Each structure stands twice: as structure tokens, then as C-alpha cells.
Amino acid sequence: MSNLDEFLAGERLDDVVFFVSDAYLDDDSRLRNVGVETDDGVRLILDGETGRSAFEAGTGMGAMEFAKTAMGADGEISRSLDDGVCPFADGDSGDDDSGDDDSGDDDSDTGSDADHAVQFVFAFAEAQNDEVGGIYADGDVVHAYAHCTCGESYSHKWVIGERAE
Ligand SMILES: [Zn+2]
């Protein structure tokens, strides 16, 4: 089981996940040595304090400040915490039917991909809390916050185990 799988299973409640896209991160950033390279960037899974420091070093923003900003908008962040769907992308936020982006030239309305790419994601998991109620009583909750190339931020939270992907 990878660190990410453990995090997503609620087994790393003290850790945070920090993902930075290749476009945003310097090629020689030392974060590349600390994290795991993914298709689009680098993902770090660190204990809370180290993770928040890394986030601040990587983005120039405080993690919790950023989270508060991102909380203002609901978006969709992939379960793997390295991609998302910006709620500020134009269009009537429809279902992305086929989602077959690889097909060359017929990009009639796919401009939003370039305009709304994930720059970085910060996520943590919170233990089930019956006193708070709501979804917090249903299980451990993953809180994820993303920053988009359009300059906006958004958030997504889900109960662990209730999301397949
Ligand atoms: Zn955006």
C-alpha cells in the first residue's frame, strides 16, 4: 500500500498531502527530491508540520490561510489529489461527457483545460467526529484544497470509503 493509499484510507490522519504541478514548480526545486514525481507534478506526503512548511516554501502562502480561501468555493478534486475541475471554468459546468481530450484538433470548447489547470493541492484527513455531526459522523473526512491557474481556489471534501475514485 502506498503512502497515498494509506492517506486515502484514513490511516495517516496526522499527515498532509501537498501536490505541485510541474508547470508551477521549478525544475531544480528540492521538493522534487522529497516527493514522488507523478504524471503532472510532484506529490509529497508529510507529517502535518513539515507539510505545512513545505507548502509555505513552495507557494509562499500559509497552508491554513490558503485552505480558508479555498473553502469559499466547491469544486471537484481528484481522489489522487493531483487534478481537479475548476468551478470557475466557463460553460455551464456540465458533465464532461466523453472526456476524450487526446483527439487532436477538434477542440471546439476545450479551451478551459489550459486556462484552468491545477497549480497545487493541499489536503488533510480528519478523524470521524460524532459530535460535529453531518458527514463528520459518517467517517474520517478528507479535506482537499486546490489552486487553479486562473487564480481562483476551491475545495472538495469527502468521507473516506464513500468515493471510488
Ligand atoms: Zn480555474
How would you characterize the overall build of this protein?
The structure is a single chain. The two termini are 16 Å apart. The protein contains 5 helices and 8 strands. The protein is globular. The protein is 21% helix and 27% strand. The strands form 2 sheets. A 6-stranded antiparallel β-sheet has the order 2-3-1-6-7-8. Strands 4-5 form a two-stranded antiparallel sheet. The chain has one domain. With 165 residues, the protein is α+β, with helices and mostly antiparallel strands. It binds zinc ion. Zinc ion (ZN) binds at residues 86, 88-89, 116, 148, 150, 152. Zinc ion binds next to loops.
Summarize it.
With 165 residues, the chain is an alpha+beta fold. Helix content is 21%, strand content 27%. It has helices at residues 3-8, 31-34, 48-59, 63-70, 112-115, and strands at residues 15-21, 36-37, 41-47, 76-77, 84-85, 118-126, 141-148, 153-159.
Largest sheet: 6 strands, antiparallel
Radius of gyration: 16 Å
Number of domains: 1
Low-confidence stretches: 103-111
- Outline: globular
Distinct ligands? zinc ion
Average predicted confidence as pLDDT: 88
- Summarize the helix and strand pattern as letters: HEHEEHHEEHEEE
User: Which class of secondary structure composition applies to the elements?
Assistant: alpha+beta
Helix content: 10-25%
The share of residues in extended strands comes to 25-35%
Tally of individual helices: 5
Cα end-to-end separation = 16 Å
Sheet with most strands: strand arrangement: 2-3-1-6-7-8
- What is the β-strand count? 8
